[in-house]
Amino acid sequence: MNIPLSNPDITLLERQAVMSVLQTSSLSLGPKLPEFEKSITRYVGTKYAVAVNSGTSALHLIVRALGIGPGDEVITTPFSFVSSANCILYERAKPVFVDIEPDTLNIDPDLIEAKINRKTKAILAVDVFGHPAQWGALQRIARKYRLKLIEDSCEALGAEWRKKKAGVFADAAAFAFYPNKQMTTGEGGVIVTNNRVLADLCVSMRNQGRSKGGQWLQHERLGYNYRLSDINCALGIAQMKRLGEILRKRAIVASQYNELLQDIEEIEVPFVAPDVEISWFVYVIRLKEEYGIMHRDRILQFLKKSGISCSNYFSPPIHLQPFYRQTFGYKRGAFPVTESISDRTIALPFYSNLKKQQIIAVARMLRKGIRAVQ
Ligand SMILES: *Cc1c(COP(=O)(O)O)cnc(C)c1O
């Protein structure tokens, strides 16, 4: 048995789309870039989309375009992929972590106000594992303290909170298209926003600080090469055409897992809030509170030895990553909910084309693994 953790869903449509770009001379900054961006704005419902070469680049440009800089503080979650905090450090601002809710695993709005001071400039919330954060509460806090709001939706394309799509709740949002995400461009990301000034700044900064309609060697501001090639964009356009189908298939896999796993006493299956339409990015179960990191890691070992790829998303959490420990002196105990959850999560193989027989096999081995480590 050999079941990977994730697997992109690529068909003939995607292969033909990429091949057709290779038959033109526009491999970058060609017609596929605006076409891809248009497919994103149409789907998410924002006015603007700026495609870039990764989700991390998207987050960096948002932070920079919002004017966040040295001495500023940005409130964010420690239970995320490292780039949602790194993008704050790129601009010499300070990530101020706030613990998470034990059910949604997203930043806990009730703990935010205690961390706000004169240096606080923004809140960067993550829709972790495709489950939208508490956007109503976050928007109220941002309005009350005049803070910018950033949505890291890199794991949540297609998710909904109160019938609105993830990506529309903040001043700007980022999506990512690495091959393990719901859809892929190989590498890639996009900024979505309704703010034209912010979108224009991002367009300029992704392309070496050039201005719209300006000359090729005219650089108005500090910029980067964060461009997404037309080859990647063509792949993205084809994936966007199939996104509905891909998300439906992922939801079916998740419900099959739920059905097969929900009676296992030692674990909890993923939580979905009643006002949320989750976009399934990963399928992460957690061991109940009486278990710890030793049990979890031994179950991971057991599954891997049986040919089932699995992972410990997100363990360690960001504040306990070596770089953050060294730089900020964080120790265990700083964010108890995050740490407790991080110790007990298991991400099971999850992708749109996972077969029922494979799901059954994973469920069987998980039961066996849990029994083996008691
Ligand atoms: C994937 C991801 C990103 C960005 O990833 P890239 O690999 O740079 O595209 C950012 N934040 C979160 C939470 C992610 O899962």
Helicity level, as a percent range? 25-40%
Low-confidence stretches: none
Describe the global form: globular
How far is the N terminus from the C terminus?
24 Å
Please outline the major beta sheet. 7 strands, mixed
Give the strand order of the largest sheet, numbering strands 1, 2, ... along the chain: 1-9-8-5-4-2-3
Mean pLDDT reading = 97
Number of strands: 13
| Structure ligands | pyridoxal-5'-phosphate
Helix and strand sequence: HHEHEHEEHEEEEEHHHEEEHHHEH
With helices defined by DSSP (H or I, 4 residues minimum), what is the helix count?
A: 12
Gyration radius over CA: 21 Å
Q: Report the sheet-strand fraction.
A: 5-15%
Structural class by secondary-structure content: alpha/beta
Structure overview:
The protein has 12 helices and 13 strands. Strand 4, helix 5 and strand 5 (148-152) form a beta-alpha-beta unit. A 7-stranded mixed β-sheet has the order 1-9-8-5-4-2-3, sandwiched between helices. 37% of the residues lie in helices and 14% in strands. The protein is of the alpha/beta class and 374 residues long. The longest helix has 19 residues, at 243-261. Helix 1 packs antiparallel against helix 7 and helix 3 (55-65) runs parallel beside helix 4 (83-89). The protein is globular, with a radius of gyration of 21 Å. The structure holds pyridoxal-5'-phosphate. The site of pyridoxal-5'-phosphate (PLP) has 14 residues, from helix 3 and helix 4.
